[in-house]
Amino acid sequence: MLLRDLREQLQAAGSVPLVELAQRNGLPLEQLLTLLEPWRKRGRVLLVEAPGSCSSRRCGSCSSPCTEQRLVQWQASLPA
């Protein structure tokens, strides 16, 4: 049931911030990533950097707080 709920949320939204998806479903971030992994391996889900997120990946190198900035994108059709 949880996987179906996740799929429906992603299909409806197209893309959702990873942290928001975890919060909506009451899941720790690591558990959500584990649940999404089979879909990611099949190309059904993409994890992409959110626009404007930190590209340096060096915490403390900017004034922005280091937080999870990835988006989860549902792929309506699988790549050929």
Automatic annotation (TrEMBL):
Protein name according to UniProt: FeoC like transcriptional regulator
Ranges where the Transcriptional regulator HTH-type FeoC domain occurs: 3-64
Alphabetized Pfam families for the sequence: FeoC (PF09012)
Highest taxon listed in the record's lineage: Bacteria
